[in-house]
Amino acid sequence: MFLGINANNHDASVALVKENDILFAGHAERYSRIKNDSNLNVELLEDCFSYGEPTQIYWYEEPWKHSLRNILSGERPLFRGVKSYLKKYKLDHLPIKTVPHHGAHAAMGYYTSGFSDAAVVVIDAIGEYECTTIWSAEDKDLKKVYSSYYPDSIGLFYSAITDYLGYKSNEEEYIVMGMAAFGEPKHTKELLEEFFVNWNTPYVQLRHNLHRGMKWWTLPPKNRWRDVDIAASAQWIYENYLNNILNYASTKIKSKNLVLVGGCALNCVANGYISHTTKWNKIWVPPNPGDSGLSLGSIAWHNREQLNFQHAFLGYNIQRNVNIKSVVDAIEAGKVIGIANGRAEWGPRALGNRSLLADPRGNNVKDRVNMIKKREAFRPFAPIILSEHYKKYFWANPNNHNYMQYADPCLDKENLQAICHVDGTSRLQTMPKNSPSITRKILEAWYERTGCPILLNTSLNVKGEPLVNTWADAERFSKLNNVRIF
Predict the structure, then answer these.
(1) CA–CA separation, 51 vs 30, rounded Å?
(2) Which of 9, 119, 434, 465 reaches 20 to 30 Å from 146, CA-CA?
(3) pLDDT of 282
(4) Do the Cβ atoms of 351 and 402 come closer than 8 Å?
């Protein structure tokens, strides 16, 4: 039985695998209530080990390479060692193997895809040294065919823009992605000239090391450029980089299947763009492509076999009876309600087990949900829809849309204003017939009652806090925000 660990960096997580079955996968932040918590905690490990005792640990990176990079770039080296770190959690008695950071990303993506072959593209801010890698995958063979290295990172560029605009890098890039739709990419030329030496894919080269951000940037004065136009320009640059690197990958690898992973794969607007403009037969973006997915990826790197991945409900389990009629009654009455039921989602997005749900028809509900979540009014909400009906309401390619990884054009913007962004797209999530989530049954009852197969779905949390995990978390949320939780 194998324990994968990602910790002491950001977004700490663990995964437990027996043979090819994923028994548990969970996030440290959900237990500690510290957003993007970098450390493990006892409650997370106790919950994980209730599914079985591990005999082997796989660690998500090669620490000596990370430490060397830190020293060469003027940062502090890492802690004194993996074994020393794990000692305080009483895990140092287990054998430990380390894996390459980008290798863990690639393995997690490919070995959850179900593909027999694929081109695997990993894009993030930085691993130990690598920033973008391309892999050829076939059965148990996972071979790297291209790497770009620190500090030449499109992910660092996007994070630096996020920081420059006043948001948290490595956390709030999705806000910049959302605000980009309100602007125009007016400043792409200036940004490319200021921050890039070379823009010829795949050999993109940055003019500056942006690891510490770009708040030093003063040309032109910030008050002459609108933030939304800066965001739109950065988004345009990333989308074009992604398109170009995927075209390059297609020249190196024969497979027509694409696996996209790394933190940048959470950019659902770019994912939607490439799903409609590139010629891959199938695209797989897993529900947890960022660093919190590396705990599972580290195991997959060593196993080199397709995992039995059926859904993303792999975390803490809340077992309660839900009165579906009462849920539908409340939503029909215009209420925003919460669902905290079943096993928690693996990945950053609420997919129906730790969700706020509301009627998507009309626009007033957006303001009510934003008040509850205490978040910016410009940010979009996502639709969750019975999978058999999505083609009627969205122009979406037949990739797996169960995990909210693509922004696709909405075909009924007038009647679905609450889940349609200003650019006419929606971050689509389909709910398949075999889903274990109670929200599938809620959607069925809602459709039977109203003829609408869609609900507004957003995460059961407020801005700056992790998703609700336990029923105690749900009760606290309910009390503080006056929202009924089922």
Answers:
(1) 18
(2) 9
(3) 97
(4) yes
